[in-house]
Amino acid sequence: MGERQLYQPLTKEDRITVLLYRIGIGLSTLIITFAAYLSFGPSPFHYALSLNSVANILLILLSLSVGCSVLFIHLYVSRFHRALKKLYYVSIAALLLLFILGRGDAFGIIIGEPYGPLLLIPLSGCLGFITAKEAFCFRLTEGYLLALIMPLYLLALSMGGMTTKGASYGLLFIAAMLVFFTLRKVFMPIHYDIGDKSAYV
Predict the structure, then answer these.
(1) Residue 176 half-sphere exposure, CB side, CA atoms within 13 Å?
(2) Number of Cα atoms under 13 Å in the Cβ half of residue 183
(3) Which of 24, 33, 110, 123 registers the highest number of CB atoms within 10 A of its CB?
(4) Across the chain, what does the average pLDDT equal?
(5) What is the mean pLDDT of residues 69-73?
(6) Residue 62 to residues 53, 67, 80, 87, 199: CA-CA distances in angstroms?
(7) Does the pLDDT value for residue 195 go beyond 60?
(8) Angle, to 10 degrees, between the axis of helix 142-158 and the axis of helix 121-138?
(9) Could you tell me which of 166, 183, 174 has the C-alpha nearest to residue 147?
(10) What does the pLDDT read at residue 3?
């Protein structure tokens, strides 16, 4: 479980890494929420850029924001962190593959090919690991649900199991849960994320 006790004075590095970890969570939530908003139809952004262009930019930003959390997460067991970073590197490779296959338009592959959404599962796995870790440590139950729902949502998309409207509402539901999760997480005291450093292995 998460440690709420302050075991040792926080260093500058402690504060910076926790801040970057939480910024990654917050930005990921904002990006997915914005994507959910765009999925419901035209917005002022469509006049400047096409939906595909905006979606491609959001995919890159989401990968970077999730990566920020992955790189700066505090885990007692270092092999879990190494495994998480390896999964993140797989997600980067999968995103690059989407852009290569789409000749610069990754979103076109995601919505046009059955295998497209599957290539986002590693990225959703990274974000799901983070939400599940927080659920385990601080009883943020929605974190477990997000870890299950996000890859299942992508799997359903790949199988053609949702209408366009259903996909939009599904993304909106995920975004709402992420907002709830983020608001409960990012305002916790910084030392909660550090815990007892002597327990790190």
Answers:
(1) 6
(2) 6
(3) 123
(4) 91
(5) 97
(6) 14, 8, 22, 15, 31
(7) yes
(8) 160
(9) 174
(10) 58
Cα radius of gyration (the chain): 17
The two tokens of residue 179 are 């907002």
The amino acid at 197: K
Residue 135 near residue 189, CB atoms below 8 Å: no
Q: How many CB atoms lie within 10 A of CB 178?
A: 25
Q: At 7, list the tokens.
A: 């075991």
Instruction: Categorize the per-residue pLDDT at 1 as very low, low, confident or very high, splitting at 50, 70 and 90.
Output: very low
CA distance 176 to 163: 20
pLDDT (mean) for 86-93: 98
CA distance 55 to 169: 17
Start-to-end Cα distance in the chain: 16
Q: Each residue of 170-186: pLDDT tens digit?
A: 999 999 999 999 999 99
pLDDT in tens, 100-151: 999 999 999 999 999 999 999 999 999 999 999 999 999 999 999 999 999 9
pLDDT exceeds cutoff 60 at 46: no
- Do 150 and 174 meet the contact criterion of CB atoms below 8 Å apart? yes
Question: How many angstroms from the chain centroid is the CA of residue 93?
Answer: 16
Chain-centroid distance of CA 81 in Å reads 16
Look up residue 168 and give its two tokens.
């939009």
The C-alpha atoms of residue 161 and residue 144 are separated, in whole angstroms, by 23
Give the SS3 label for residue 40: coil
